[in-house]
Amino acid sequence: RDLAAGGEGAPLVPCFDQAWFGHGMPRALQNIGGIANVTLVGRTLSPVAFDTGPGNCLIDAVVRRITRGAQSYDRHGAMAQRGRIDQDAIRRLWAHPYFRRAPPKSTGPEVFHESLLNAVFGRRWTSPALTGGTSRGIDVLATVTYFTAYHIAESYRRFLPATIREVIVSGGGAFNRTLMTHLARLLRPVPVHSIARYGLPPQAKEPAAFAYLAWQAIRGRINHLPGTTGASGARLLGTLTPVLPHSAARPLGHLVTLG
To answer: What is the Cβ-side half-sphere exposure of residue 124, based on CA atoms within 13 angstroms?
Structure first.
């Protein structure tokens, strides 16, 4: 329904962000899952939300490549911490046209995937010397990890219309200590905290958000922010489907499907 109204169909979590954090000081709610997305909320602000770019998707692609598939992610950012950052590669990554687009905007792993790494790192990406935990592979991982923090910080400077007082990070990226350290340094003096500080496990935020959206749908209340998706107006998202037992005519409950 958001798409039918001319919206991007994403992000949807800002409705939850506004409900839970929208009555305080200006904050950036930064999710770092496969893709990174931010919501700006605050007492006197109109919410702004968009996908900033790749979250863990490029980091995880590098990890799979350099470990020959033995690992799927960099636990706590321990490998990236050992590497050297290639500033020329940072500039080439930042040259991607997505980062010039103004919000509302959304993206996905179909845009930020291994072909981009191949284009940026060239022979280093395809070389057998990249694998097996070599310093060359670790340097690529360090560079991509830093870039993930870099594009988030630069996107704030370009597209957030207010001075933020705090950044609250959710998603798997909140567990990557190297990534969180880069983000804190790039955004200094603004404090950067995991959402765990507020009692919600980082990987539980999106499930909690979609449960909230479903609850709003059941109550017949608007459950998205059209200004953050580009939709022409507010819509009630989701369908309500009765859940029937195998041998009964009376529904056991309802399933809400958002879309």
So the answer is: 17
Residue-level pLDDT at 245: 66
CATH T-level topology, domain 14-200 = Nucleotidyltransferase; domain 5 (3.30.420)
Q: Is the dihedral of CA 65, 70, 76, 80 positive or negative?
A: negative
Pairing of strands 166-170, 48-54: unpaired
Helix axes 135-159, 114-121, angle to 10 degrees: 110
The rounded distance, in Å, linking the Cα atoms of 103 and 99 is: 10
* Residue 37: both structure tokens together: 């997305």
Average pLDDT over the chain reads 88
Domain locations in the chain? 14-200, 208-257
Sign of the torsion angle spanned by Cα atoms 185, 187, 190, 195: negative
